[in-house]
Amino acid sequence: MALWDRVWQTGKSMVVGHAITMREMLHKPVTVRYPEEKPPFERGSRSVPVLKVNEESGRLNCVSCGLCERACPPSCIEITQAMDEKGRKKPWPETFQLDLSHCMVCNLCVEACPFDALEMADVVELGSYQVQDLILQKGQLAEIWKTSRALRVAGGERL
Amino acid sequence: MEAQGGAPAVVERDGRRLMKINMGPQHPSTHGVLRLIVTLDGEVVVGVEPDIGFLHRNFEKIVEGWSYPGIVPFSDRNDYLGAITNEVAVCLAIERLAQIEVPPRAVYLRVLFCELQRILSHILFYGTFGLDLGAFSPFMYAFREREWGYTLMEKATGARMLYAYNRIGGLRNDLPDEWFADLEKFLVFMERQAWPEYMGLLIENEIFRERTIGVGKLTPEQAIAWGASGPVLRSTGVAWDLRKAAPYLGYERFEFDVPVGKNGDTYDSAMVRMLEIKESIRIIRQVLKMLPDGPVLARVRPNLRPRAGEYYSRVESPRGEVGVYLVSDGSARPYRLKWRAPSFCHLQLVPAMGGGGKVADLIAAVGSLDVIMGEVDR
Lengths: 159, 378
What we know:
The structure holds two protein chains of two kinds. By secondary structure, chain A is an alpha+beta fold. Chain A has a domain at 49-158: Alpha-Beta Plaits, CATH 3.30.70. Chain A has helices at residues 2-25, 67-71, 108-112, 138-147, and strands at 49-51, 77-83, 89-99, 118-120, 135-136, 153-154, 157-158. Chain A starts with a helix and ends with a strand. Chain B starts with 9 loop residues before the first strand and ends with a helix. Chain B has 15 helices and nine strands. Chain B has helices at 59-62, 68-75, 83-98, 104-132, 137-157, 177-203, 206-212, 220-225, 231-234, 242-245, 266-290, 342-347, 350-354, 359-369, 373-377, and strands spanning 10-13, 16-23, 35-41, 44-51, 166-167, 170-171, 309-317, 320-328, 334-340. The radius of gyration of chain B is 21 Å and the shape is globular. Chain B has two domains: 10-51, no CATH class; 59-377, Cytochrome-c3 Hydrogenase, chain B (Orthogonal Bundle), CATH 1.10.645.10. At the A-B interface, helix 1 and helix 3 of A face helix 2, helix 5, helix 6 and helix 7 of B.
């Protein structure tokens, strides 16, 4: 009897398995041919923090206060304040460096910024063959911001 | 040909020629970078020695130099298939020490995300376990739902795997109403179509049953002695679930069962996880009914300094008990943070489960433990 039971079980498994896979053949494919066609990003999905440019003045919103630098857990942001020739501080960054190889995309810098100067971009294809190329300067970050959609939202609500 | 530290690949023992062979660290069925040093007598496994440390990230020491808010996103990287549960474990410990009251809506949403994460993790377990045993198509079916689930996560949290969604005192952002409708669609699909398909394709399949029933057996005593938790412990028949035994996040408010196995073999281990998917769907439905309105994030000082003291918070992750032992000396950085990882304990079970069987059964045993090397090595 046990043999018949096993034969029955095996036959049933084959029929059920084939029925499921055959049914799937009638459906449209769920996969996307990635490099040729790119699936859209969800609203609020984020990759790396980039610098926002003020639409009116064309300058960065960043005033170089250093709050994001302090909020960043792996310390991948480095800012130096701009100075005039008399040594007075100016409210924009002289340099703004972001080390992509350390950034863990946690959004803490964006939340720390009181001046709306940082935003998470939706650009993911930032890979490079050299580690040095992953250190982005302020000009490059502003350039990425211009090409990415405005995405300082998650779950449909402004933070 | 040398296996380890200059030891000969062929050793003589009791007149038999035994082979020492490396399985891993890059073996596709070892789930990450796990190296097993296997001693073989023909095809029979005589001894197994797990060798770990290939994914060491120095989590516990690094966070001693970080302020509290930064620990939460970093903890995602430990168990990267149960990222939300890691965040919740850390947040519970810090919130307890800093005496922060979390808004009720955030507590309910945390439960929702923990359970959604459990479903997604078990779906991946189903796919990879089938793959380990040579069944390829269940893997593709599993990824169909997994992609859907991760898109839901992306809509809510902004990321697909490492969410950085929990904050100390609640959650980063609230969810839009249409997200809940999407979630309901996902749950209905999981329940009506995907779950029966999973059962038909793999779990009830005769080949799968032959490969798993009676393989990698554990007794309840063994499992408890080695510190197993989660589905591995429950598959031996011990109904130990932290959500019932030591409720956190108000799990006592929800009605759900704890599925247990009987024999403690790899089949029961897979079955327990499949049933847990159903229980998680049940809990999510209850959360959706009970979800209160209100804020999701409490006001927390940016420069957080919890009072001096220590606290051990533990949550039931998809793999078992994730524990965070946090010692604070009253400063802005933790004095010590110890991470209790379930996979680390489960990996010690490999010699007990795989010894004496065939090589293919060893693969089944490792696969059924569902170890995540990111969590083992930390």
